[in-house]
Automatic annotation (TrEMBL):
Organism: Lentinula aciculospora
A Gene Ontology term for the protein's cellular component: cytoplasm
Single biological process term from Gene Ontology: purine nucleobase catabolic process
InterPro entries: Amidohydro-rel, DHOase/Allantoinase_Hydrolase, Metal-dep_hydrolase_composite, Metal_Hydrolase
Keywords linked to the UniProt accession: Membrane, Transmembrane, Transmembrane helix
Pfam families cross-referenced by the UniProt entry: Amidohydro_1 (PF01979)
Gene Ontology molecular function terms on file: allantoinase activity
TM region(s), chain numbering: 25-47
UniProt domain Amidohydrolase-related: residue ranges: 157-508
Source organism superkingdom: Eukaryota
PANTHER family registered for this protein in UniProt: ALLANTOINASE, AMIDOHYDROLASE 3 DOMAIN-CONTAINING PROTEIN
Name of the protein this chain belongs to: Amidohydrolase-related domain-containing protein
Length: 958
């Protein structure tokens, strides 16, 4: 890499313009007509003396500036030399009181994230951290009582603010409206001249939500539709007095608000978004070959311009002023020239080996480094390739478990963070907000930790590592004296499930006005002890990212489970905890399963007639037995790869906006999901291994009427196996939305017509079942206004027919607004996504829960006697495997409701409640039993080791 011209620079407190400041050597050179430039551009050393009497006349009047510009060209971005002596942040908000956080457990990020100050104080003032650990008494006495806020942390964990290396917050705004979708330009493959700052919406609903999750700084990247999508900008999320996008920026390059302005030394880092693979190919109807050629063309433009500039400067610094002309510049290409001069952090969306290889070759052809590969699902398979990148090995910015949504991510592995770290590669967890809601970015780090990334690296992956990769590690990402006062006070260890900020400071300003804090158990005050995934990690590599997911063995003989600490069962009236080791004294309990069916629970003596000496014994090491979970809300079992049409069942016709072929029966056709089931999708098998034993899936539809859902065993090999389909037809599914191409009133009118005798043929038969209460009508709906209309419609129809309709709302982001009425109407609710987010207008009135509101949607509905189920957290089937953790997050959020939600009630949210809400035959839940080691199915400490299925007559062992 090219080096800075002459280092170190002597800096003033704030860098000043070139004309008022020169390098002393340059000053001397100009004064004596003698110019010595050492190491200029790293390519040559020039030593020129020229005859003052003859040459002076030719020297242009701005020679000094030209030479300074040339000297500066290759200066590498850095903080000013006296940066760490600062006493006030450039982002300090005058009038902000100093804050003393007393008695905190501080994770500083120092020593590779291994330093923890067990009991220390933090002094925040003037936008920076003034002291860490022991705060000197005299530092405090300087403040009057009125100028110091004191916050007693009572030993709570404190971490640096979360840093998100990959966000579209503000550019891809929430709620999504046509007027604010500003992520992707469609005007060309290579557009380094675009800037995400120009799209930054200051009214995005996500700012407050993400802050409430502890996020303080994000890189706002242009989208990935282009090979070079444009320049990215670093922002802090807090509101500013000026209320402008520009005032949110953190250390923007000096040229952000003017072109051709004089250089300031040292320069600041710039960020550039690049993307390869499917997205640019898709948007521009091209191929990977076209994309890489577009890159090479763009970089060749930049290279040529750089050569011209360097030639110009060579002449200038050697005094060849004759006909030198103007400095070669081009506003379109200057950002790429800066890439070639080593002044830009490239954030490169890139997934597969084929694309990573292409970019690594590109970096060596044009000689520039990549800061990080993002998404990067195959990087763990090719660490040695990454190490061949020009300059240095790129970091890798990942999702924890989001994968298989397109071919590029099909080989994604939950073990990637750990494997990359083992290879000495820096790992970042990122949100791609709003793809993942960055409020829960710490949850990504938690999952990476669960699957094997060391706790110090997991915490670093959302704080110090991204700060370093974006070039801001001199001021954010650590708890250090002199760093920005971006600090999160947590209600538990940040890697514990459900960790929620109690307070968030940005630039020393407390962001939560009246934070609602939940009590948390002592067990959550330390990092979870995660299970051993050594074998699975090795298999991911051995099988090139596609390890077999089927059970190792299926046992129909007697299996004895022993050494479990808890046992949950559905005895027909919801899930109950049958056994808790902490309340039990006596002989150890065992559970006997034969042909997949639970036959005895008790001491060995009590159950002795149920087994013999040859029976298989499984030691659960303090684990648990619990009913298998259910999942609703994704196309699980209908789709292998979301982005690939040829791998999925496909969409049904919509009778409201299109014509249904008459050969199918026209408007009276009803599609059954069971007819399209595909078994052994990787998402289903992973769900099975994660304790989700039953998938309930409706036909895929983007219109009003979807059809009949089905319930299937997620671990079955094919449909013809006994017990593979648990229930052919489950419920009738419709959806209503403001986003449909016909009016909401038309949608309601259609539903009214159908429910009032307007449905013929097969549809008439199914509607009749709904009217008799034989099957539920499951309605996908988010808007409270639409729900209100539906409740009225229900009353109308019930009056007309004298029957009770079983109605369930799914989605239901705004259901809490009508909690009382929903409860009174006897309507059930499946919250999906499990953690609401205002993706669209009709989802915007969410009840976010602590720390923003005391109550959450789940707790509010439960308090109003609504039967609540938790649906999948995204409408994609990769997310189903996370059900047990999502439920656990929901429970953490519901704790504040006063009455504690027990583990049994939590399990019910994703099992017996869903059974009831979707109208499954009772017994669906009780037919599967999941065995975990190390903890209950809801814990980060546990791992699923076996599933017993009564319907299939076997115990599957993993
Ligand atoms: C610390 O404990 C005190 C006294 O119980 C309480 O008022 C305060 O809110 C607690 N602080 C935090 C940050 O939880
Ligand atoms: C810090 O808080 C913890 C928990 O409340 C308490 O046990 C401990 O004594 C406190 N330490 C100091 C130094 O105040
Ligand atoms: C550009 O922004 C900087 C930093 O905020 C400010 O000092 C400067 O005055 C701005 N320049 C113009 C031309 O607005
Ligand atoms: C919920 O049910 C309980 C027990 O049946 C009852 O006491 C309570 O009033 C109900 N709450 C509401 C809001 O209907």
């Amino acid at each position: 890499m090219e080096k800075a011209v002459i280092a170190p620079y002597e800096q003033e407190r704030r860098p000043s313009r070139v004309n008022s400041r020169q390098h002393p050597l340059l000053r001397a050179a100009l004064a004596f007509g003698l110019l010595v430039i050492s190491g200029y551009t790293g390519l040559y050393t020039a030593y020129t003396t020229f005859n003052t009497s003859t040459s002076l006349a030719k020297v242009p009047i701005n020679a000094e500036q030209i030479i300074q510009k040339c000297v500066n060209l290759n200066a590498i971005p850095a903080p000013t030399a006296d940066f760490h002596a600062r006493e006030e942040s450039d982002r300090y908000v005058p009038g902000t009181k100093a804050t003393l956080i007393k008695n905190a457990t501080i994770w500083t990020g120092n020593v590779d994230g291994l330093e923890i100050i067990l009991s220390g104080d933090l002094l925040l003032d003037k936008g920076i951290i003034q002291a860490v650990g022991k705060v000197p008494k005299d530092a405090l006495s300087a403040y009057g009582r009125d100028h110091l806020e004191v916050l007693d942390a009572n030993g709570s964990w404190v971490s640096p603010g979360i840093v998100d290396l990959h966000s579209h917050l503000g550019d891809y705004s929430s709620p999504k409206l046509r007027g604010s979708d500003d992520t992707n330009s469609r005007k060309g493959l290579v557009q380094p001249w675009l800037r995400s700052l120009d799209s930054l919406n200051t009214h995005d609903d996500a700012y407050q939500l993400s802050i409430a999750g502890g996020v303080t700084t994000v890189v706002v990247l242009p989208g990935s539709a282009n090979a070079i999508g444009g320049q990215a900008f670093v922002i802090k999320l807090r509101p500013t007095e000026e209320r402008s996008p520009s005032s949110m920026l953190l250390e923007p390059p000096f040229t952000f608000n003017g072109s051709g302005i004089e250089e300031v030394l040292p320069p600041r880092w710039r960020q550039l978004k690049q993307a390869c693979g499917e997205n640019p190919s898709r948007v521009y109807s091209g191929t990977r070959m076209d994309t890489i050629w577009a890159y090479r063309q763009g970089y060749e433009e930049a290279r040529k311009l750089k050569v011209k500039q360097d030639a110009y400067c060579e002449k200038a610094v050697t005094g060849q002023w004759d006909s030198l002309g103007d400095f070669p510049e081009d506003l379109q290409w200057e950002a790429l020239v800066d890439v070639l001069r080593g002044k830009v952090k490239i954030q490169n969306h890139c997934y597969e080996a084929v694309d990573l290889d292409g970019i690594v070759r590109l970096t060596n052809e044009f000689k520039f480094p990549i800061a990080a590969f993002h998404h990067a699902h195959e990087t763990y398979l090719v660490p040695d390739l990454l190490k061949k990148a020009y300059g240095h090995t790129p970091a890798v910015a990942l999702f924890a478990t989001s994968a298989r949504y397109k071919r590029e991510s099909y080989r994604g592995s939950e073990f990637a963070p750990r494997i990359l770290a083992d290879n000495g590669i820096q790992v970042v967890m990122k949100s791609d907000h709003p793809v993942l809601n960055s409020r829960f970015l710490m949850y990504e780090a938690q999952q990476a930790h669960y699957f094997g990334l060391a706790d110090n690296l997991a915490l670093a992956s959302v704080t110090s590592t991204p700060a370093k990769i974006m070039g801001q590690e001199h001021r954010i990402g650590y708890i250090r004296k002199g760093y920005d006062a971006d600090v999160v006070l947590w209600d538990s260890h940040p890697l514990a499930i459900g960790a929620t900020p109690k307070q968030v400071f940005i630039d020393g300003v407390a962001q939560l006005k009246t934070p609602f804090v939940m009590p948390k158990s002592d067990a959550l005050q330390r990092a979870p002890e995660t299970p051993d995934f050594e074998e699975e990690t090795k298999a991911a590599l051995k099988y090139d990212g596609l390890p077999p997911l089927e059970p190792k063995e299926s046992v129909s003989d007697v299996v004895i489970f022993q050494n479990f600490d808890s046992l949950f069962l559905d005895m027909g009236d919801g899930v109950e905890q049958i056994f808790a080791a902490e309340d039990y004294v006596g002989e150890p309990q065992i559970a006997i399963v034969q042909n997949g069916k639970l036959t005895c629970i008790g001491t060995s003596e009590v159950c002795s007639k149920n087994f013999n000496v040859n029976s298989r014994t499984i030691n659960l090491h303090g684990g648990s037995l619990a009913p298998g979970l259910l999942s609703y809300g994704s196309p699980l079992g209908l789709v292998h790869i979301t982005g690939e049409e040829s791998t999925q069942d496909g969409e049904v016709f919509d009778s409201l906006t299109g014509k249904i072929p008459s050969i199918l029966g026209g408007d009276s056709a009803v599609i059954r999901a069971v007819d399209g089931l595909q078994f052994t999708t990787r998402d289903a098998l992973l769900a099975y291994r994660s304790g989700v034993t039953t998938g309930i899936t409706a036909p895929c539809s983007s219109g009003l009427l979807a059809g009949l859902s089905t319930a299937f065993n997620t671990g079955a090999a094919h449909k013809l196996i006994k017990g593979a389909v648990m229930q052919n037809e489950v419920a009738l599914h419709v959806s209503l939305s403001l986003s449909f191409p016909v009016s909401v009133s038309t949608q309601i009118a259609t539903l009214r017509t159908l429910l009032s005798g307007g449905a013929k043929g097969e549809l008439g038969v199914q509607i009749a079942k709904v009217l008799r209460g034989q099957i539920p009508l499951v309605i996908g709906v988010h808007s409270a206004d639409i729900m209100a209309s539906l409740i009225q419609l229900k009353t109308e129809v019930e009056k007309e027919y004298g029957s009770v309709i079983r109605m369930t709302f799914t989605g239901a982001s705004e259901a809490h607004i009508l909690a009382k009425q929903i409860g009174a109407a006897g309507v059930g609710v499946i919250i999906s996504p499990a953690r609401s987010f205002p993706y669209f207008w009709d989802m915007r009135r969410i009840l976010p829960g602590p720390p923003l509101t005391q109550h959450s949607a789940v707790s509010t509905l439960l308090a109003n006697n609504v039967t609540v189920g938790v649906g999948v957290n995204f409408d994609e089937s990769w997310a189903v495997r996370n059900t047990r953790l999502d439920v656990s997050w929901g429970v953490q959020a519901a704790l504040e409701a006063g009455g504690e939600v027990s583990k049994a009630e939590a399990i019910a949210l994703a099992s017996s409640n869903l059974e009831k809400l979707l109208g499954l035959k009772t017994g669906t839940v009780s037919s599967n039993l999941v065995a975990t080691t190390g903890g209950t199915i809801l814990d980060f400490e546990s791992k699923v080791v076996a599933v017993a299925s009564a319907k299939r007559g076997a115990v599957d062992l993993f």
